Amino acid sequence: MSTAKESQRVIIFDTTLRDGEQSPGASMNLEEKIRIAETLEEMGVDIIEAGFPIASPGDFESVREIAKLVKNSVVCGLARATRNDIDRCAEAIRPAKRGRIHTFISTSPLHMKHKLQMDPERVHEAVIDSVTYARRFTDDVEWSGEDGSRSDHDFLCRCIESAIKAGARTINIPDTVGYAIPDEFAALIRTIINRVPNIDKAIISVHCHNDLGLAVANSLAAVDAGARQIECTINGLGERAGNAAMEEIVMALRTRQDRMPFVSNVKTENIMKASRLVSAVTGFVVQPNKAIVGANAFAHEAGIHQDGVLKHAATYEIMTPESVGLSASKIVLGKHSGRHAFREKLKELGYDLGDNAVEDAFVRFKELADKKKDVFNEDLMALVDDEVVRVNDRVHVIGLDIHCGTKTPPKAELELEIDGVMKSCKATGDGPVDAAFNCVKALIPHEARLQLYQVMAVTQGTDAQAEVTVRLEENGKTTNGQAADTDTIVASVKAYVNALNKLLVKRAKTEPPAMTA
After folding, report:
1. Average pLDDT, integer, range 238-266
2. Which of 362, 381, 454, 457 is disulfide-compatible with 464, CB 3.0–4.6 A?
3. How many secondary structure helices (H) and strands (E) does the chain include?
4. Number of domains in the chain
5. How far apart are the C-alpha atoms of 19 and 55, rounded to whole Å?
6. Share of the chain above pLDDT 90, in %
7. Domain interval for residue 370
8. pLDDT tens across 372-411, in order?
9. Cβ neighbour number for residue 265 with a 10 Å cutoff
10. How far is CA 198 from CA 144, 159, 162, 171, 270, in A?
11. Which residue in 194, 145, 193 sits closest to 168, CA to CA?
């Protein structure tokens, strides 16, 4: 790549596995994180922030395992400005072909006074010490001034200059609380470029939160002002209102080359696959009107719009569905289809599964084809995603029988396999779902409260698969479960059990220390 082209390249730093996981209930297990990391690398993401190694043994393990597997993307770990954090991070990323330590400390007056209880001089010293120490382990060190958008400009520029002098190659300016507006944030980036004498020795990054719905707008404004790295997440996942959504950023850059002549390495055709995977793993359903990846993003119901699109797609579509990996919903397979056609269709949809996984999915496809007259691409995607969320579960749904209606009280008979042992139960409830859930509670005693129960149809029609999301909370810990089935009650029980499986794992985890950035 030439120098001119390189100056127009925007580095995509994905923090779905770190900042995204800070969303309440969005915790992921090791297998899920690895699958997401592999998908991000396949997409062409430049840097994968795999976690916060000192937060818990689970976070350390996930960063270390991802560091072993990923070959093309840089694997990054987060660390506060302390030697213990940096040591733990360095150990976690050590196996990586290319590893980065991302260290941060607050620089705003509000954070320094009330959060850190440190004066500016001590913070400045900590910046120098942390970056200098991190450089002992890798030459790829990123420094962030937390709450950068609300920091005093003179002090922020002083910290940036010192961080670069100490060896930071990337300087990140976070809008930690989503407070900035685009022209203000762009002005801050220009101020840094104009006032920090050694800024040419580092790449300017931005990390914008979406509290005012401006994360993507602020990120793009910063790029226009000179930033060349954007920190973002799939589906905009993240704490509070979330982060800048990667899919919106890369498609904005691709679509509006006339105003933003910048490029990224992301293969946009993989966007839908990544979006669905993150949704399936976290249980966070994408809203229908979400830009780029929402179910209605390419839907046209108004007659005028339909007429225009039929005559010329560009009348109401500024990008093609295929450009984000969305194929038209059409019948692709039936109950007479063979393994070869099934495998090829999965590849077409962006799934590259091993032989055993394909065989398992094929068996479930045959079961689905017997129940459903028409099998759509979305059905196959839901089927494979459902396999993903149930990897290594301790509890499996074996059988379910429901009796309900207007004449008899709802009754459920449930059979579960728990750690290899078959157990069954009968229970009643206020409705079929309540009766089935009561069975689960009887077989797996727990005090978890049901916080969310959500049902969505994967496709149209009365024989559509139901995709159910369940959120459970126990002692401050939340987990999401998700499952799909043509029978809504079966999908509900599978989702509930999936959430319980995650809760069983989470019970053993230690609580992470406070973090943000």
Report:
1. 96
2. 457
3. 17, 16
4. 4
5. 12
6. 60
7. 327-388
8. 666 777 677 777 766 665 656 789 899 999 999 888 889 9
9. 15
10. 16, 12, 9, 11, 37
11. 145
Question: 173: Cβ–Cβ under 8 A, 6 or more apart, which residues?
Answer: 144, 145, 148, 149, 156, 188, 189, 192, 204, 205, 206, 207, 222, 227
User: Looking at the structure, do residues 239 and 352 belong to the same domain, yes or no?
Assistant: no
- Give dist(CA 79, CA 87) in Å, integer: 9
The mean pLDDT value for 74-99 works out to: 98
Q: Do 479 and 502 touch, CB atoms closer than 8 A?
A: yes
CA distance linking residue 375 with residue 111, whole number of Å: 54
Question: Cβ(60)–Cβ(88) under 8 Å?
Answer: yes
The answer to whether 90 touches 123, Cβ cutoff 8 Å, is no
State the average pLDDT over residues 202-222. 98
* Spatial distance between the Cα atoms of 464 and 378, rounded to a whole number of angstroms: 10
Reading the block at residue 500, the tokens are 């319980």
What is the pLDDT confidence band of residue 508, given thresholds at 50, 70 and 90?
low
Q: What pLDDT is stored for residue 322 in this prediction?
A: 81
Q: Give the pLDDT band of residue 352 (cuts 50, 70, 90).
A: confident
Amino acid at 49: E
Encoded tokens for 83: 């030697």
**What is the edge-to-edge ordering of all strands in the sheet holding 421-428?**
395-403, 411-418, 421-428
| Contact by Cβ (8 Å): 296, 42 | no
Same-domain check for residues 312 and 195:
no
Residue 254 burial (C-beta neighbours within 10 Å; 0-12, 13-18, 19+)? middle
Please write the tens of the pLDDT for every residue from 148-180. Answer: 999 999 999 999 999 999 999 999 999 999 999
Residues 161 and 221 in one domain: yes
Query: Is the domain of 321 the same as that of 341?
Result: no
Query: CA-CA distance, 418 to 500, in Å (whole number)?
Result: 12
Residues 333 and 315 in one domain: no
- pTM value is 0.81
DSSP per residue over 357-422, as a string?
HHHHHHHHHHHHHHH-SSEEHHHHHHHHHHHHHTTT-SEEEEEEEEE-SSSS--EEEEEEEETTEE
Positive or negative torsion for Cα 294, 220, 27, 22: negative
Does the structure show a pLDDT above 70 at 259?
A: yes
Same domain, 367 and 423: no
Q: Which amino acid is at 301?
A: E
487 strand-pairing partners: none
Residue 301: the pLDDT is 44
